[in-house]
Design goal:
With 95 residues, the chain is an alpha+beta fold. The protein has three helices and three strands, in the order H-H-E-E-H-E. The radius of gyration is 17 Å and the shape is elongated.
Amino acid sequence: MTSMDEFAQKLKSIADQSRLHESAAVFERSRSFIDANWEELLKQCPNCWVAVYEKQVLATDKDLQNLINTIRKSGKRLEHVAVELLTSEKNPILL
């Protein structure tokens, strides 16, 4: 392997780490929105699944599979979207 190949691999590794960090940051902002607005979301759609991307509600649905289909149709990356069931108990999931 040439030094240019090694350099290219190191750059790719750095880019991959950067994308991973960005994905985690986007997801965290989405999760934080749900936490900060839990009571209001629960009032608006009790016992529904909610999908949030970048502090915006993408969808709500009583059926999780329908919600996931809606997320996919939106074009958002699943790992960026926070999804939770709006009940009196918080049970986070990671897609």
